[in-house]
Amino acid sequence: MFAGWVASLGPLPLAQAREVSTTIVDRHGKLLRAYAMADGRWRLPVDAATDVDPTYLKLLFAYEDRRFHSHGGVDILALGRAVFQFVTRGHIVSGGSTITMQLARLMEPRRQRSVHAKLRQIVRAVEIERQMSKEQILDLYLAMAPYGGNLEGIRAASIAYFGKEPKRLSLSEAALLVAMPQSPENRRLDRHPNAARAARDRVLDRMVEEGVVSDADAAVAKAVPVPRMRKPMPILAPHSADNAMLSVKDKSVITLTLDAGLQQALESLARDRAVALGPNISVAILAVDNASGDVLARVGAPDYFDERRAGQVDMTRAVRSPGSTLKPFIYGLAFEDGFVHPESLIDDRPMRFGSYAPENFDMTFQGTVPVRKALQMSLNVPAVALLDRVGASRLSSRLKQAGANLELPKDEAPGLAMGLGGVGITLQDLVQLYSGLARLGNTRPLREIQDQFQSQRGEAREPERLLDQVAAWQVGNVLLGTPPPENGVRNRIAFKTGTSYGYRDAWSIGFDGRITIGVWVGRPDGAPAPGIVGRTAAAPILFDAFARTGKLPAALPKPPKGTLVASNAKLPLPLRRYRPLGDLVRTDGERAPHIQFPLNGSRIDTSGADGVSVSSMPVKVAGGVLPITMLVNGMSVGELDGRRQRLIDSPGPGFVRLTVVDAKGAADTVVVRIQ
Length: 675
Fold this sequence. Notes:
About 35% of the residues lie in helices and about 15% in strands. By secondary structure, the chain is an alpha+beta fold.
């Protein structure tokens, strides 16, 4: 009969008992955000070995289940003592239930307290002990223990009442958490703080009687007032957490690449600066590790719950006009093609490109300036002149190749205006591109959810080509010298600012040798914000963000092999001054130089027919006015002969940029791969 009754109980509801709130944690396992269960309960997963203060565990075992680690689910001695005390005193003095029996009651809650219910707990406790280890039993109990209202488990209670994880608890806090589950509703701190305090003191008195706690320590603990209000659950990185919840299914703990400390610091920075900038102004910040592409912090809005600033819109993923922030990549392609150098001179003067006549932000012109200064000052005419030479379609395809998604107006092809912001892009993609400069020319897809690329794209995230190493280093070196805002130190952070048309978006993106940070400032609704410009609104936030990383800026990489570092006077003659395409049109019938061999994009095999390596390769040019200078990766290797040919030494395997410049400054460039 008893066996039949036991069988009628059915299997243990372990699957239901193991259900917990989904928690989002940072790269170190620190809680960023938790989501309540479907029925509104907060139940956070617990690992007693790592998540709970040893003082609490010592009190728990001494008060609730002294022989937890030795009994098989039922403590016969404790039960006998409880029965004897009830018979001799007429009321319950101690319950005699083990932690395992209490877990059984939590798994199958019953309102009535009867011999039948107690017998059921005993049977279930024995079953639990047979199916689970002591560590698993303790972890499950610590996750399910009731603390009043919708709080279950020691982690939820500690966070809600003390504002911290239960890893470090005072004696007073530990005793309080031991006492509350015995009568969770009657001892709720937010409703019955006096009852909770009395229960805590009884736990301390008993611990003194049993020699677990000294009189002096107990007295100090009793003097501590109990909290009377619940604290809100932490909501760090809310946009990242929401995205993780949508991306990852059926996982109770989702680990992000974020760093909780940096995230908190940058959220505070964004909140403070948004308030100072005025109502309706939002701030977004994104920080990325250069080496791995891991997102270290994402602030999509200064306040997730601020409706005026559209706080629940993640502005790091919003498509906006980039202003001048794409200019470094125009210069990078120009450096890569070899027709201009950071120390080359370039004209900043009124110039028309068809019907398009760009002007500078301050409506003035600087005359002839070094290319370095033109980029640092973000002059518009030189940037458009170089883009005209490089090609807007080529810039667009190269940025897309590096992982950026550009949005052009419907049915519109890339044009010169994209160099000044006539295209849509996200802060996330901009930061990925700038991290490619810090990585000397290749980008990595950004990662925010641990292991997401292992499961979706294989074991590794392949880098994407942005620029060649020399060109990327040259751009970074130029940006490093950009005059910083008042709160910044010069030559520590390579950065660029930008302001979109109509003062709708203010940007500042910067990097050092370790991290890339991007800042966007503006109105989420796209309305103009007069006076909000990149240099005065976004750049100071960028430099503060670097300061709040807690580390000094790391040095940028050294110049790659083959980098031409020279003053203007020591540059090859054709590189000393940039001439726009219109200036290269012949008036004497002479054709501009054109490299006939090797062809652009070709692969050159430098091993001979018999497998012997060939140390040189020919270059053949048509047209151009002699003398014609030959450059390999921006370094002059001499002049072509009278037949416009030359044998050059093979620079080794990899991509090689070959450039020829004739006596009148006309040039042609090809990029080939040596193998």
